[in-house]
What we know:
Elements: E1 2-7, E2 10-21, H1 30-44, E3 47-49, E4 52-62, H2 68-71, E5 75-79, E6 89-91, E7 97-100, H3 105-110, H4 116-124, H5 145-148, H6 152-155, H7 163-168, H8 181-192, E8 202-204, E9 209-211
Parallel strand pairs: 2-4, 2-5, 5-7
Antiparallel strand pairs: 1-2, 3-4, 6-7, 8-9
Amino acid sequence: MLSVTRKENLITLNFEIYLINKTSLANINLYVLAGSIKKQIETVYSGTFGKIELRSNVTVKPLYEYKLKALHNNLVIAISSNVTNDNVAEADFGGLLIKLNPKHLESINSGINKRTIPHELGHILGLDHPHARAKFESINLEASALEQSITNQEKLNNLMCQSWYIQKAGITLNDALALTENQVKLLFENYTSKKLTKNYHIKRRLFSYSWIGKI
């Protein structure tokens, strides 16, 4: 479940996330990972951004056994061996699914990597990279007007900038967790304009449910 509410200058994000293991690895402790994910999301998506206060309420539910029917139209983080280019993780842009590479679970649990989950969740919430692909000090012309307004200085430690950008800027990647006031405004606009959950990877049929694509 994903919901976003606003009361004057307070925006509240409510996440109910199902955590599942789609690999053949049997020794993954989903409860430990769930605690790490909750802490990272609530840390990044809380605080004061310009005139806006942002709060996050996060529940992560580990499921060792599940039926696809229970996951339909719900936010899912799936540990998967089918992450593109063996990246740490990837997400449906504006969708409800994050795929997480099992090779990097230890770094997430230890806090060595506290950026990947919040970054991919940003894409779930409809945030784009504010810079052009593989181009330093640039503007992503496919991003929203609010994201295009982010300055080059703000990009240096921004959560949604790609890793190569942060590293080239000489900033520690794991500390590049900042959001701007405009990005926070966009979270609410994306939700109210129903731009989210459009690319979900579970398809409902008449009597059954199935994954779309490799998970």
